[in-house]
Amino acid sequence: MKKNTNWVTNNPVWRFFSSIKVGITILSIIAIASCIGTIIPQDLKSDEYLTKYSHELYNILKALNLTTLYHSWWFTTLLILLMLNLLVAAINRFSLKLKSIGFLITHSSIIIILLGAIIGTVKGERGFLWLKEGEVSSTFYIGDVPKKLNFQIRLKDFILEHYNSDSSKITVSVTKEEKRIEFIYPVEMGKEYDIPDTGYRIRLIHYIPDFVIDAETKEVMTRTDEPNNPALQVEITNPKGETSNRWIFAKYPGMHSDKETGIDIVYHWAPEKIKDFKSELEILEEGKVVQSKTIEVNNPLEYKGYIFYQASYNPEDLTVTGLQVTNDPGVPMVYTGFIMLVAGLAFLFYINPIFRKNKE
Questions:
Q1: What is the per-residue DSSP string for 110-174?
Q2: pTM for the whole thing?
Q3: Pairing state of beta strands 263-268 and 169-176?
Q4: Which residues neighbour 189 within 8 Å (Cβ) at sequence distance 6 or greater?
Q5: How far, CA to CA in Å, does 269 sit from each of 88, 170, 181, 205, 234?
Q6: In this model, does residue 257 exceed pLDDT 60?
Q7: SS3 of 180-202
Q8: Which of 16, 60, 194, 248 is such that its CA lies 20 to 30 A from the CA of 71?
């Protein structure tokens, strides 16, 4: 029996996988590959890659599986090699002694995590789905390859939330005693401001995102909800108590201004920053809603093993959402491995020292 054990440990293949240097090398390559996977977007359609890269570069990336890195054969091979390295190390140090239990649990947990990751790369799916408000779909895409769901998903509503922008403001300029004085105020509808030491008051009445005057009715209206020509209607009260209205335009300062009022107002506009974006989703089976949820970043919807993450939106059409779709059967095994890892580390750093003290 002893002779047989020596044959195994002296075997060049066994010695190769026993090497710490080999393990560190494999781990380093995996780390570098993972960094590349964060730099190069994964599992997109070919036309999306061609907007970022030239045809030649895209063909090279595709040939090296760098656009589907985590599902590539070579990345899976690296994970298998690392798992074998840890498995051999665990077998070499196998012992039923109490002091070895922490080591065995820790190594076993990492092996289980890697096994879960391998199952995920081989059996898992990770793709993308664009949905427009009201649209129903049962297909997402992994790169250019369509993948069918056994249920339907509908975007009921797409919600964009903005920060209150401090960059939208008005500047009021007054010439007094041959000196030009400027006052800056935030844009708040219905707000009235007293201009110090001038007797003037201004009140912000109305905001129009895309100002236009109807050719037939001569009424002010907005062409779209997009701020293509943002304008403010301002009511000005002079020192005599007389009031007048004026439209001021962010992109055309000085347009329609009334210089006789003795006061000049400039509208400074800047787009509001997006605070959050959410999708109100519904899962349908046989035409009936079986589950619904409003998702946002880090708060996905899960159904039948598939997870729908809020990933993006279309800035040119704010009724379209971008969802990342994943299905990873290796996740339960990965979670199990992490729980074991915590237990193994607790055994190494807390329980083992206690037993050593008791022996002393």
A1: HHHHHHHHHHHHHH-EEEEEEEETT-EEEEEEETTEEEEEEEEEEEEEEEEEEPPPTT-EEEEEE
A2: 0.62
A3: antiparallel
A4: 204, 205, 206, 207
A5: 65, 8, 21, 16, 15
A6: no
A7: EEEEEEECCCCCEEECCCCCCEE
A8: 16
